Amino acid sequence: MSENMDNNKESLFSLKNRKLLSNPLSKENPISVQVLGICSVLAITVQLRASIVMAISVIAVMGFANVIISLLRKTIPPRIRIIVQLTVIASLVILVDQILKAYVYDVSRQLSVFVGLIITNCIIMGRLEAFALYNKPWPSFLDGIGNAAGYGWVLLTVGFFRELLGSGTLMGYQVIPDALYEVGYENNGFMILPPMALITVGVIIWVQRHRDRELIDVS
Amino acid sequence: MTNRYVFLYASAMVIIVALVLSGAATLLRPRQERNMRMEKMQNILAAIDISATRGEAEELFARYVTTAKVIDHRGEEVVGDAFEIDMQEENRKDPQQRQLPVFIADVDGETLYIVSLRGAGLWGPIWGYVGLKSDMATIVSANFDHASETPGLGAEISESDFEEQFSGKRIFDEDGSFRPVRVVKGGAPPDDPHAVDAISGGTITSNGVQNMIREGLEAYKPYFEKIKSS
């Protein structure tokens, strides 16, 4: 997605701004490098569909929250900044939920349980606190979208493998052929339990560290 | 920044947020309630094996569901709007005071009865509709839903793979005694008309479904007996 946007709005995407978008996908990934937001990764990646809905919701909430906080950044009293951030996130999530309920009811049914998880997702507040509070709206927006996308791709990867190996389906459709089951293949029931999400994230971290040696913590 | 500023800032923020959220809720409520009514109609129709999209739910509901009755604990018909009955509220009442909805449908000349159930899953309430043939023993189909069961585990009760198991199952045995459908962990024997497979990883929710079916249908038993004897 980032590449398409690059082509359309070349001027706004200086090297620095592009890095805001691309770094959280890899070198500064909120999940695999900063190890934030793990709770929701464990909870909602049993199925790919739920992971996709969650990723899109977090991208929307995070983009808006970062812009709003960035616009307000000069007025927010430092002593109550956490409360202000939380209020902005919670209001956005409630608003998103209400709109989904009215216009795309089926998606809202999918999302229902996860709404609370978006509010408590520490990546969102982490970015507000670390970035949006000190930067202009446009870079904050990019930072929000970048981090949410970094969260999203890990979510989708974990969801993909858990649904494929745990249920033999993707998006609810069976993809493992019946012939394979006939010769003795079985779905791994362990994959649908939360511990395997943690191990899957571990494998992602491993692969990422293997390909990018800079990330290895030698201390 | 002075304390005064902090207080003013916080108050202004709260007022703005309250206005925005309540405004959004008020504006969107009619649409949301309409969606919920449609979904309820869809679920009731699903219990007699009629699949309707949300758009056509209203039309199909009007076509197939001919009567909606409210009954009391003795199975006697009382006055009321069956569609508006809130099972959560009814379950809180004393069993003698409960009012239960019955939807009677006419599908290709066959009379079918749909009853409403509500129980507890692992994280929150679960509910559903069961459609019965006019012998009051054979299940046409069942539809379940939940508020907050775990996706991929307990939440599977609302998937058709689980629900379809119920069609053709029986809630009375050959002697006519009440024997509701059990949800069996590890797989039900294929020839058992009183059992279905539980969901792996969703044992507590599966047990919740079993209890809901037993308790919910028990409440309707006087009504079933009346229909059977008439």
Architecture overview:
The complex is a heterodimer of chains A (219) and B (230). Chain A is mostly helical and 219 residues long. Chain A has 11 helices and 2 strands, in the order αααααααααββαα. In chain A, strands 1-2 form a two-stranded antiparallel sheet. In chain A, helix 4 (48-72) crosses helix 5, helix 5 crosses helix 8 and helix 8 (122-130) packs antiparallel against helix 9 (137-167). A 6-stranded antiparallel β-sheet of chain B has the order 2-1-3-4-5-6, sandwiched between helices. A two-stranded parallel ribbon of chain B has the order 7-8. In chain B, a hairpin with a 4-residue loop joins strand 4 and strand 5 (125-132). Chain B starts with a helix and ends with a helix. Chain B has one domain (36-229). In chain B, helix 1 packs across helix 2. Chain B is built from 5 helices and 8 strands, in the order H-H-E-E-H-E-E-E-E-H-E-E-H. The longest helix of chain B has 44 residues, at 3-46. At the A-B interface, helix 5 and helix 9 of A face helix 1 of B.
Q: DSSP strand (E) fraction of chain B?
A: 15-25%
The first-to-last residue Cα distance of chain B is: 80 Å
What does the overall shape of chain A look like? globular
Beta percentage of chain A is under 5%
Radius of gyration of chain B: 21 Å
Strand line-up in the sheet with most strands of chain B: 2-1-3-4-5-6
Short description:
The complex is a heterodimer of chains A (219) and B (230). Chain A is an all-alpha fold and 219 residues long. In chain A, 66% of the residues lie in helices and 2% in strands.
Please supply descriptive tags for the structure shown above:
heterodimer; A: 219 residues; mainly alpha; 11 helices; disordered N terminus; B: alpha+beta; six-stranded antiparallel sheet; two-stranded parallel ribbon
